[in-house]
Q: What sequence folds into this?
């Protein structure tokens, strides 16, 4: 399958997700099951083709939204359906390579508590189905780019390369909303 075919297939899947999200009357943000584990929520570091990035307790990539300029999220509605905020009821533990002092919680408009790293809200990408995937890297959606996050809290703006671990990666080109 060519890169263009993969991007087209991924775009079609995202369009279906947006349509499904628009039909929901829930109004609240959804948090993937990966947001919590038996040991509780955590922000840890993981080595990837992008370098070292932050992940949740189950190894799912966490992203930043370039449109967020402070601690408060600017992603809600269809945006939050595609980029679910990483929420927790208690402050997540700091895993290997992450400073506990850099992790905090901020209250979202819907009342949920979103995890932040160095003052930046963290999100999942619905296109990442398992640990280690970087399908949201560099995607331009909902008014700005989405980037993986370094343990320091800064955006990682490189292009993801595919690896042989079975997880898929994409530079994210071609997506629009």
A:
């Amino acid at each position: 399958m060519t890169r263009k075919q993969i991007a087209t297939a991924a775009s079609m899947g995202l369009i279906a997700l947006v349509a499904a999200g628009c039909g929901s009357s829930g109004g609240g943000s959804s948090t993937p099951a990966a947001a919590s584990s038996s040991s509780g929520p955590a922000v840890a570091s993981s080595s990837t083709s992008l370098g070292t990035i932050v992940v949740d307790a189950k190894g799912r990539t966490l992203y930043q939204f370039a449109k967020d300029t402070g601690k408060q999220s600017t992603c809600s509605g269809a945006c939050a359906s595609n980029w679910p905020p990483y929420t927790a009821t208690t402050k997540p533990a700091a895993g290997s390579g992450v400073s506990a002092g850099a992790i905090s919680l901020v209250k979202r408009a819907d009342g949920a508590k979103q995890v932040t790293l160095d003052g930046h809200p963290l999100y999942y990408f619905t296109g990442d189905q398992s640990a280690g995937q970087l399908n949201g890297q560099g995607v331009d959606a909902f008014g700005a780019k989405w980037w993986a996050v370094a343990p320091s809290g800064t955006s990682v703006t490189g292009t993801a390369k595919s690896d042989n671990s079975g997880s898929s990666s994409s530079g994210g080109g071609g997506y629009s909303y």
